[in-house]
Amino acid sequence: MLSRCIGLAVAIAAAVSVATCASAQEAERKGIPAPPGHVFKTIISGYQFRSKETRALQDDDLENPGFLAVERAADAWKKVEGSEGKSCMTCHGEAETSMKGVGAAMPKWDDKLKKPVNLEQRINICRSEHMKAEPWKFKSRELTDMTTFVRYQSHGMPVAVKTDGPMSPWFERGKQTYYTRYGQLDLACASCHERNNGKFMRADFLSQGQTNGFPTYRLRDQRLVPLHERFEGCMFDVRAEPFKPLSDEFLALELYVAWRGIGLPVETPSVRN
């Protein structure tokens, strides 16, 4: 009987220790006040949910492996391609000026297509329509590099997507997707990132699922991962049939999730597990 009591006491002490540790982590986590009507009171970047070693890697521009993509794309920005004999720089000039703020506002409405487009789509529209060059494939190093480079020009600027006007139906569609349970595990985005953020799922520490750092360098994959690939991965994880990258379903979801992080600074290229 005595040994059982001692065992119970040890278990309680361990639980208190874990709770204390979790409370300490919670106290250290920083965010920004959410706007009225937001589902959270405080919006917190995924950066705050990572270890101090991972945060240090992201903060060091020389050590952050995502900056290799920025350097490669800086060269590609000036490269002439396609039958029109143009480069990105031909039309847009210096990216540091012309692309400032662009990545923070994506996805954005496209009057010609009558739908929102994200950064990967906008880059490929420029290539096919203005440069007469072949569009890059999704997940190709070239497209992910250029997406990272353009998004990096908004580094530190607040996420500022628009969800009114013609974007409204897409916002509502993305919201519906966010709260819909999918797959054999019967889980929605909200199951992990809204109701259980700040808790461990196996060895992973669940964040709010913010998108302000994408494309993000994932240590597990040893490469930059675009947002729709991460969406795809989440759906695989719940054993569902994923939507296609750059599909309308994921585009609507991208818009809605971007709104959930409105005001957070763009961190691209971020570093995550």
UniProtKB/TrEMBL annotation:
Belongs to the SoxA family. It catalyses: S-sulfanyl-L-cysteinyl-[SoxY protein] + thiosulfate + 2 Fe(III)-[cytochrome c] = S-(2-sulfodisulfanyl)-L-cysteinyl-[SoxY protein] + 2 Fe(II)-[cytochrome c] + 2 H(+); L-cysteinyl-[SoxY protein] + thiosulfate + 2 Fe(III)-[cytochrome c] = S-sulfosulfanyl-L-cysteinyl-[SoxY protein] + 2 Fe(II)-[cytochrome c] + 2 H(+). Its cofactor is heme. Heme c 1 binds at C88, C91, H92, C126. The keyword DNA-binding does not apply. Binds 2 heme groups per subunit. Residues 1-24 form the signal peptide. It comes from Bradyrhizobium amphicarpaeae. InterPro entries: Cyt_c-like_dom, Cyt_c-like_dom_sf, SoxA. It is an enzyme of class 2 (transferase). Heterodimer of SoxA and SoxX. Gene3D superfamilies: Cytochrome c-like domain. Residues 73-159 form the Cytochrome c domain. This is SoxAX cytochrome complex subunit A. It comes from the Bacteria. It is found in: Periplasm. The active site is at C234. Transmembrane segments: none annotated. One of its GO terms (biological process) is sulfur oxidation. Its EC number is 2.8.5.2. Coiled coil: none annotated. Heme c 2 binds at C189, C192, H193, C234.
